[in-house]
Amino acid sequence: MANYHHHGNRDGRRPRRSSGAKERQAIPAPRAGADAKLKKVFAQIGTPDPAPFVADRFQRQALETIARADCLVTAPTGAGKTWIALQAIERVFKAGGRAWYASPLKALTNAKMAEFGLHFGPAHVGILTGDRKENADAPIIVGTTEILRNQLYDAMHRGETLDTDFVVLDEAHYLGDADRGVVWEETMIYLPQRVPLLLLSATVGNADQIARWMTAIRRKPCEVVQETRRPVPLYPLVMHPSGTLLPLLIAGGHDGKARLYKKVSDFLAARRPPVLAPPGKLPPFGALLAILRKYRLLPAIFFLKSRADCDQAVQLCQENNIEDPERAEGLRQRMAELADRFPHIRRHRQRWAVEHLAVGSHHSGQLPAWKQVLEILMSEGLLDAIFATSTVAAGVDFPARTVAFLNSDRFNGREFMPLDATELQQMTGRAGRRGKDRIGFALVVPGKYMDIRQVARLFKAPAADVHSQIRINFSMTLNLLLSHTPPEVEDLLHRSLAAFQKHGQAHGGEDAAHAHLWHDFQRHVDFLQATGFVDAQQRLTEDGQWASQLRIDQPLIVAEGLRLDLFPREEPVLLAAIMASLVNDKETDEHLEKKGVPEPLVTAIDKVVHGLRGFAKFMLARNFEVRPLYLKPAAAVYHWGGGRSWERSVQAGQMAEGDLAMLVLRTADNLRHMVALKEVFPQIADTAKEAIARILRDPVLPDYTTAIVAPLPDGAADPAAGGPGSADAASEPPAAGAGRTEAPR
After folding, report:
1. How many CB atoms lie within 10 A of CB 579?
2. Distance separating alpha carbons of residues 708 and 723, to the nearest angstrom
3. Pairing verdict, β 197-201 and 70-74
4. What burial class does residue 154 get, using C-beta atoms within 10 Å of its C-beta: 0-12 exposed, 13-18 middle, 19+ buried?
5. How far apart are CA 289 and CA 246, in angstroms?
6. Where are the alpha helices (DSSP H) in 145-298?
7. Over the stretch 394-404, which tens digit does the pLDDT of each residue have?
8. 211/641 Cα distance (integer angstroms)
9. How far apart are CA 660 and CA 127, in angstroms?
10. Which among 10, 143, 231, 631 counts the fewest CB atoms within 10 Å?
11. Residue 299: is the preceding peptide bond cis (ω within 30°)?
């Protein structure tokens, strides 16, 4: 097993701002202007008249369908998918049944807990996530999809059926998520046929294919209900570097299809087109906000490529002063109230900008509390703009009148890749607030990494297809062998979406996909046999049975550490620190002075590294991944668990606040699985429980009392799709693995 590494640049380093006078003078400041074609469009801006809620046709159709069959609902963000789920759950509830609502993110799950509690009464709703387990016997359970999948594992092991009569899988397009899609696919395969399944999804290109697969594996009809109309129409604009707003597309030609607006084409064809900012620099956001304000296009969300850009953008808004004294005072008072609730934001470096400029930076490097505060302020209409990385398109619900983006590519966690149509729809899905806007806008801002022609094509393109992401890992292998014979496992793998999607392709696609999965499963079983977790008859040994409960990032490494007694039995802070190093999936020991790390921690880490070296080498020799153990994440959690200040702990880990908060939450999730092994390792289980208590404290734990919940007129749920905390894509999830715990936001 590798030990300590030193390489790479620190993430999130703020770029230096140029102060060259020539550079500033070379580019004239943009001056507000709008093409004449936009006069009628801008005339539509305003708030719609209040009207009683009437269900749309697709909503009524979905309720009729789920009464007789499984149902896959695909609709744009804001179209009303949550209303369908609430009405369907209410039917089950009134009939004395039980329902399970699964979502991909803890933030979304917490918001749904609050929303459902208002609708059904708190006594009837429970929540199950890594952080929360409340009212678990309630007839309506809201939880993360990983928890639902784990319950299916347990039910299969006990030879029982899942104790529910109805399941909703929200954000079902996660089926195609590279990191977590396997959890959705497993859940769909394992769910008993008797339990009706309602899938809610953003628009996907191959919804009919997904429904045919579900019909095949569940041996009951699955029907697609599709809605393509946005509740708030979207109009795409281009910001010309002069400051003039232009339509991106315009209808033309004999076919009536939308084409690139001529003035935009002329701009792109120019030999030396004007620019908004020098190469590598951000545009003057204060001037852009002034233009948007003149044409009533605020509030806005700007999607930028990096955390550093988001933070720097806030500094480029110095002239965006709040002119209305009453509004300024209201914002300061609200910020003071939230600072009392979230003490760690009182001295936040961007608090002044929020209170005086009405702008903020929202990304994964920020504390959960800071992001929550910005979401509340934006939802209450108190901010002009938020600067965010593209991942904010998922996991939150603070729509704006305008969504602006500066890049036609997106960082997927590993590299920058061109946007596809679905990703663009996810980002622009925040444009236009239902009940507040008659029209929403998507603003394309030209720059070095913006391909305007590509974006124009994406606006006209259908949504991308969802493809299977199923893969075998040790957690899946152990849990399948816990309740299935190898022939039964082979049958399950034959029912995978991967095999279904390969059916009929050249080279025996379906058989090839199944053969690949089965071969990989056997490869995992062979290793488990060689290491004593599976016997010669391919049944779990005693070690295999308890190891199957470690549905975590690295189950075998942790299991071997437990077998060899390598973890501290009576020192919760050290145990938490070691687990943080095992959870960590980033190379983060560059610039680390090992002599500055507390000696007990170095000794404990060295014991684990040396003790697991032989096992790790054996894994590597069999082509299984083994992550290095780094000291930085361990040192940060060691300081935090030991009672040091949050600031000191962040400094020890040399990481962003949001990264440390995420690390702590994931560490606690992994420790909970050790707590579950109390019958086999009672002392370690007790120590793990104490470790969780040491590290889960403010400002890491979210404040569940501040969930943004839509009003429920006349006893009905707000029909806005997704509802509070809605998500249409992964929000910077942890690394891949079917055994991993669910992602915080």
Report:
1. 30
2. 9
3. parallel
4. middle
5. 16
6. 145-158, 181-190, 207-218, 262-269, 285-294
7. 555 678 999 99
8. 47
9. 25
10. 10
11. yes
In the block, tokens 């951000």 appear at: 282
Six-digit token string for 78: 């804001």
Q: Are strands 258-260 and 140-144 parallel, antiparallel or unpaired?
A: unpaired
Rg (CA), the chain: 26
Average pLDDT over residues 534-556: 96
Instruction: Give CB contacts under 8 A, 24+ apart, made by 694-697.
Output: 694/572, 694/573, 694/576, 694/641, 694/642, 694/643, 695/576, 695/637, 695/640, 695/641, 695/664, 695/667, 695/668, 696/131, 696/664, 696/665, 696/668
Q: Is the CB of residue 549 less than 8 Å from the CB of residue 479?
A: no
| Residue where the block lists tokens 């990494």 | 449
Residue 674 CA: distances (Å) to CA of 151, 153, 298, 566: 17, 17, 49, 14
Q: What is the mean pLDDT of the chain?
A: 88
Q: Which two three-digit tokens encode residue 187?
A: 């859940």
Q: What is the mean pLDDT of residues 460-472?
A: 92
Say whether pLDDT at 520 is over 70.
yes
- CA-nearest of 440, 415, 309, 364 to 41 is 440
Which residues lie closer than 8 Å to 730 by C-beta, 6 or more apart? 104, 174, 177, 179, 180, 391, 394, 743
Q: Which residues, 6 or more positions from 224, have their beta carbon under 8 angstroms from its beta carbon?
A: 71, 72, 73, 74, 207, 208, 211
Answer yes or no: are the C-beta atoms of 66 and 196 closer than 8 Å: yes
DSSP 594: G
How many Å apart are CA 455 and CA 407, to the nearest integer?
A: 9
Q: How many CB atoms lie within 10 A of CB 732?
A: 22
Q: Strands 140-144, 99-103: parallel, antiparallel or unpaired by DSSP?
A: parallel
Residue 248 has pLDDT above 90, yes or no: yes
- CB-based contact 498:513 (threshold 8 Å): yes
pTM for the model: 0.87
Distances (CA, A) of 14 to 305, 306, 319: 13, 10, 21
For residue 76, which amino acid is it? P
Neighbour count for residue 70 (Cβ, 10 Å)? 23
By residue count, the chain amounts to 745
* pLDDT greater than 90 at residue 688: yes
Q: From CA 726, how far away is CA 173, in angstroms rounded? A: 13
Residue the block writes with tokens 């501290």:
568
Distance from chain centroid for Cα 181:
12
Q: Answer for the pair 640, 695: CB distance below 8 angstroms, yes or no.
A: yes
The most distant pair of C-alpha atoms in the chain lies apart, rounded to whole Å, by: 78
Per-residue b or e along 663-696, where b marks 16 or more CB atoms closer than 10 Å to that residue's CB: bbbbbbbbbbbbbebeeebeebbbbbebbbebbb
Q: How confident is the model at residue 255 (pLDDT cuts 50, 70, 90)?
A: low
Class of residue 44 by CB neighbours under 10 A (exposed 0-12, middle 13-18, buried 19+): exposed
- Strands annotated E in 603-718: none
d(CA 262, CA 624): 55
> How many CB atoms are located within 10 Å of the residue 86 CB?
21
Burial of 519: CB neighbours in 10 Å, binned 0-12, 13-18, 19+: exposed
Q: 243 CB contacts (<8 Å, ≥6 apart)?
A: 29, 30, 31, 32, 33, 287, 291
Cβ atoms of residues 442 and 408 within 8 Å = no
Cβ within 8 Å of residue 414, ≥6 positions away: none
* Of the candidates 351, 207, 368, the residue with the CA atom closest to the CA atom of residue 731: 368
Sign of CA dihedral 173, 176, 181, 182: positive
Amino acid at 97: G
> How far apart (Å, rounded) are the C-alpha atoms in residues 143 and 170?
11
Decide: 106 and 700 in contact? Cβ < 8 Å: no
Contacts of 585 (CB under 8 A, 6+ apart): 553, 627, 734, 735
